[in-house]
Hints:
This protein is an alpha+beta fold. It folds into 2 domains: 23-109, Arc Repressor Mutant, subunit A (Orthogonal Bundle), CATH 1.10.10; 121-313, GAF domain (Beta-Lactamase, 2-Layer Sandwich), CATH 3.30.450. It has helices spanning 19-63, 68-75, 79-91, 109-119, 122-138, 181-186, 190-197, 212-225, 269-287; strands spanning 66-67, 95-97, 103-106, 141-148, 151-158, 173-174, 228-231, 238-246, 252-261. Helix 1 (19-63) crosses helix 2. The longest helix is centred in the N-terminal third of the chain and has 45 residues, at 19-63. The termini are far apart.
Amino acid sequence: MASIKHPSGPRRAAAKPSSATKSRAVGLKAEPAKTVIAEAAAREASTAMLERGIDLLEAIAKTGPIDAAELAKRTGFAPLTTMRLLRVLQSRGFAVGDEDGKNWRLGTRWNAYGQAAAEQGALGATAMPFLTALGIAAGENAYLKVRDGMASVTIAVYQTDPTLRIYTETGSRGSLHAGSGRMLLAHAPESVQTQVLTQRLPRFTPATRTDATWIAADLQRIRARGYLVTADEVVPGAVSVNAPVRDASGQVVAVIFVSAPTMRMRPPRPRALVSIVQDAAAKLSHALGYTRSETMITAPPVVAKKSGTPSWATAPALGGRTGAPATVSRAG
């Protein structure tokens, strides 16, 4: 019988890849891996340099004009790295050095960025998580106010319960001499305080204080204690507990507070809320770059009250003094 040949011809063994082919295949696999590693390393290096640049700017903001060598010492960076970063920041307007390149300060470009941040509601957005936590912890509505010229402006509100009354809404403007606004006035420039106290002050309720001498003295008490409790000053039957919020430079940029009806703010509850509000203020201040530990303060201890005086109106001033009345009064 004749043998049948395969139509495609005799079968051949598959050719083995040469060593050169193997090398090329390995190279195709190895090359992408090397590229990924290199790109990751470059990203890490860029991130590290960005963080160092931010650290330099924060150090300059806190210290004011500073020598480059001292700046390198404070940040722990090599002098050469510090100068290289400073030159980059200077080229973009974020830092300014003198002719010798020794003393450095923040550049004018921050003015435009600060204005843009304010217009975009950066402070209010940053504060919302802290307002939320404060509102939940206190069980009351929480607010954030800033000073805008000669007035206070509410820029953020957290409503704990939709049924709770809101005493001030976002965008509402108020006076600086009464209620929470007085915390802002206490930390305003002297020129602003003088302008406010030399004009005729409006009276919102019978409890509103309009005596410039009393208010001026109260501003000192507010700065010494670091908190303010007010009652009936702007809205009858409303009590507020306030604490200052600071930015990276230590300036007071806002007041954070809770406000509720008098029926839910009977003594000693307002004093008990002081530590909660101060803690929220300290945490928000830290988020804004303020790092001084003395802002992490707590409410003063309970002391014996005088006859006829609410117990929450006799808390001692901060710093260990006892017996001094707290900055709170239905008349002011």
